Amino acid sequence: MSRSSMWEAVGGIVRRDLLLAMRRRSDAAMSVFFLVIVVSLFPLGVGPEPAVLRTIGPGVLWVAALLACLLSLARVFTADYVDGTLEQMVLVPQPLAVLVVGKVFAHWVISGLPIVVLSPLLGLQFGLSGESLGVLVMSLLLGTPTLSMIGTIGAALVLGVRGSGLLVALLVLPLYVPVLIFGAGAVTSSMAGIGGEANLSLLGACLVLSLFLAPWATAVALRIALE
Amino acid sequence: MLQAVTLSCRRGERRLFSDLNVKVEPGTLLAVVGENGSGKTSLLRIFSSLLPPEEGSILWDGEDIHQLKELYSEQLTYIGHLNGIKDDLTPIENVMSAMALAGEVCSRTAAQEALEAIGLKRLIHRLPSKVLSQGQKRRVALARLWVSTRPLWLLDEPFTSLDAASTGVVTQRLHAHLQRGGLAVIVTHQEVELPAERVQRLRLAG
Question: Which value does ipTM take for this structure?
Answer without folding.
Answer: 0.88
